[in-house]
Each structure stands twice: as structure tokens, then as C-alpha cells.
Amino acid sequence: xxxxxxxxxxxxxHKWQYIGGIITLFILDFANLYIPKTTGVITDGLAAHTMxxxxxxxxxxxxxxxxxTLTIGRFLWRYFLFGAxxxxxxxxxxxxxxxxxxxxxxxxNEHKTGDLMTRFTSDLNAVxxxxxxxxxxxxxxxxxxxxxxxxMMIYVNVKLTLAAIVPMFFIAVGELYYxxxxxxxxxxxxxxVSELTDFVQESFSGVRVVKAFVQERAQIRAFAxxxxxxxKKNLGIAKMEAVVMPLLDVVIGISSLIxxxxxxVLALAGEITIGRFVxxxxxxxxxxxxxxxxxxxxxxxxxxxxxxxxxxxxxAAQPEIADNRDVEEVSEIKGNIRLNHLTFLHRGHSxxxxxxxxxxxxxxxxxxxxxxxxxGKSTMVNLLLHLYQTKRGMIFIDxxxxxxxxxxxxxxxxAYVPQDNFLFSDTLKSNIxxxxxxxxxxxxxxxxxxxxxHDNIIAFPDGYETIxxxxxxxxxxxxxxxxxxxRAIKKNAPILILDDALxxxxxxxxxxxxxxxxxxxxxxxxxLIAHRISTIQNADTILVLEDGEAKECGNHQELMALGxxxxxxxxxxxxxxxxxxxxxxxx
Length: 587
Known about the structure:
Elements: H1 2-13, H2 15-32, H3 34-47, H4 53-102, H5 105-110, H6 113-131, H7 133-156, H8 158-205, H9 207-212, H10 216-269, H11 274-316, E1 337-344, E2 354-361, E3 366-371, H12 377-384, E4 395-397, E5 400-401, H13 407-412, E6 414-417, H14 428-433, H15 441-450, H16 454-459, H17 477-491, E7 495-499, H18 507-520, E8 525-530, H19 533-536, E9 541-546, E10 549-554, H20 556-562, H21 565-586
Parallel strand pairs: 3-8, 3-9, 6-7, 7-8
Antiparallel strand pairs: 1-2, 1-4, 4-5, 9-10
Helix pairs in contact: 1-11, 2-4, 2-7, 3-4, 3-11, 4-6, 6-7, 6-8, 6-11, 7-8, 7-11, 8-10, 8-11, 10-11, 15-17
């Protein structure tokens, strides 16, 4: 019932197309009835010598007219019903994509890309088949069967008709059982296809790791295993169809045999004419399509129901992070940030990632966050972006609780460079202009010069029109990082967050970028996440995280004077740098 309610709201939008298609189908089915009847009239007329050549031509014209009507009608019902199904497919796909865009980061942490892609393709295709071809097959089967049986009773013989349709009751009962089994098997098949799709997507995305660790054969074996599982589930459906469809042919054959035997007896006894016997046999032949169509419709409805169920799972997921009724649309953010006993526990974790952090970041200053891997640095910036939900009273922007600022206003005023430096499969120009309303070339160039990537870009044959590969794979790690920094600089937001965004550049380039940022970001808040102290030692405030807690806080000189975690990290990094330098001199 829920599946029907879900799809019905889309069908209602195209009700006139469905009505037009169904009316056309009804007219076609009605017109089809006259072909056997006209054939019977010609046969009886010729056998009884009561029809002349003019009468034959008259009936042939009738058959040709019916044929023309069928030709036009078949075009129209395809136009109406297939067109409506395609439109609904597009609308569901648009709605599903729009809904997925509203979901939280946590949802994508828990759901694989391959599975979501299967819902956009295979599942949605099954839904389209259920609301297009299946509707046609079901309506045509029911209407045609009722009309043909009625015509057989009225025009030919009631007893012969009842004898011929008895086997068809077995088909009706069997197909209900068949539909239940097929829906279950289709769900299993879709889950197996999702796993296969996700495996392929991950393998291609991580092909460099696969090759670097010489795991091609292992991946091939793993793919073969996933592929075999998908094959097994597909064969489960195919085996069911292989049993049901031949049985359907057997039942139809039995019905035809009854027609020939019993109908022949009635014709010899004079209860029906030869022409009506011929017409009856044609009517039985016309019932073959509805029986087959009924089986196909049940199959498509079963698959479509399974597909709708999987699509509904996407729509059922609701974002935890959403604007409440009292949110403020902030036109301008100055950049004052206050953390008030900030504590955060990731879903599924038993220990908080961040514990009781309190800090004031004045507008126009630079905060650096440093600490070992897994100590909550990235979690902190994700909370500032409101990508994760935090309790009220823990984060304030310009004195306003972050939960009271609309997501649009908040994120429009924050420029962010993530750790993964994601670039889209587009031109460098489009990637750098991403997130801004305009793409003025002089502003793009200014941003790339600040990020020290301009010279690299103009050295490419296509310059700023260079198409980067998937996730920016055609660029080096340092080029991707600097392109991401340029994109954030181009946004010119009051708050800039760099999450370990300089790890892939050399120290000279890093120093130049930091110098450029200092000039470019005067009066604006900047947050630097880093592992190298050389990156953050000139920051106004440095926060040292250890096990999710704020262990030390101050500027470089103050933290060095403490002689704690920060100083220990500084001395270790200095020692490593000296060892590397000595090694280079020996070479």
C-alpha cells in the first residue's frame, strides 16, 4: 500500500496522459474484436454462396480500416503511456537527487556510492517498466480477455467458451503466486547488483593502490566472486521465468486443443457454423497475448514494487541537520567564533571525539589547530561548517548559536579546503570558480596567484580550460591542493578553513602561500589545521589537541615556553628536518 501511495502522487500529475492512453487501448481492443467476426462472416458467406465479390471487398475494406485504426492507436498509446512513464522516471530521479543533496555527511558515511547509483539506474528502470509497459499489459490483458470472452459467448457459443477458458483459471491462480516469489527474488538480485556496482566503483577509484600493491589478481578474484553472486540471483529469476512461461504455453495449448476438438464436434453437429468455428479459433488465438501479457505484467509489477521499496528507503532518510523555524538569515558574518565546552560524540562511537573545548577566536585572527592523527581536528571544522549536529550553546558565530543561523547563510560565509582536495571532472577554471556567482577571469587569476598555482596552470596546453580527470586525478597532489586553496580564496569569505591543505607542497611554496594568505586575509578569520609546526607557528593562537582535549593553547612563543606537547612536537620535527638535510648532503 505504501508503495502504491508513493508512486500514485507521480501518476496523478500525468493523469490525462494515462486516461488518453487507456481510452486508446480500449478503442484498439474493441476494434480488434471485429477482425475474427468479419473473417467469420466472409467464411460463412462464401461457404453458403450468399456473398458476392462486392461483399468480399466490402468486408476487406472493413478489415483494412480496422488495421489503420490499430496502427494509429498503437502510436498514440505508446506516446501517452510510455511518455508518462518516462516523465515520471525523470521526476523521481530529480527528486531523489535533490533529497540526497539535503542528507547529512553521516548518511554518506553509512551508504555506499555503488548502492545509491543502482537505485538511480536499475531500480528506477524497474519502476518505469511497472508504471508504463506493465500498466499497458495489465489493462490490455484484462480488457481484451473480458471483451474476447464476451464476444465468444455472444457470437459463437457459451458452452464452447466455458470449456475453453477453464484452463485459464489455473493461470490466474498461478500468476499470483508467481508475483510474490518474483518480488522477493528481484530484491535479492538488486542487492547483489548494488554490491557488484560498489565493488567496481571502488576498484576503479583505487586503481593506483591496487597496482602499487600488485593486487590485480586478488581484485579479479574478488570481482569474480561478487559477479558470481549477482549471476546466481539473476539465474534465480531466470529459472522462475523458464518454468512459468513454458507452463503458460502448455495451458494455452490445452485451451486451443479443447477448442479444436469440442468446437469441431459442435460444428459437425450444426450448433455453430464453420465461419463461427473459424472466428472462435481466432478469438482463442487472441487470448494468447493477454495470458502472456498478464504474466509479464505481474513480473514487471513485482520488480517495480521491489524497486519502489528501495527508492523509498532513500526518501525515508531524513537529515538530522536542518534549519529550524527560528533560524536567522545572516547577510554578513564578521568571523568571531566561540567554542563553549564543545563536546562531540560520533554516531556509533562509545567515546567522544572532542571533549569540553572552550575557546574564543576573534574576527580577523588566525587560529591553528595541531595534534596527532585522530584527535578530532577535522571533526572540529566539520562542526563549524555544521556538517555534524552539535548541541545548542556549544558553538557561537558572532554571538549567535550556530543552530540559529541558517545553513545557507553559514556556509556561504565560510570557505573550506578539505583534506581530500576534491575536484570535479571539469575545467580548472570551473573548479576554481565553483561556489561563487561569477567567474570573472581576473578574480580567478588573482586567486590562483595567491595559491601559487597560476604558473602551473598556464603551462598546461589548454591553460585554465584544462579538463581535470575524475577527482582531479590528472593533477599532482600539490597541484590539487593549491587548486582547492585557490577555489576557497576565490570565494573571499569572512572565515577560511584549511584542513591540512598544505601537506603536499614543499616548504618554500608553503611559505609563499602563507605569506600571500596573510596579505589576502587581512581582517578576516582563518583556521589552519596542520601536522607541521612550520605551517602554523606564526598563527595568532595555536590549539594543541590530544585525545580530543584542548591540552595547550597560546601563540608559538608561549607554547614553547610551556615545554609540553607542542615543544616536544617542534623538537621532533626539527630533528627530522636536520636528519633529512644531512641525508641530502651525503647524496
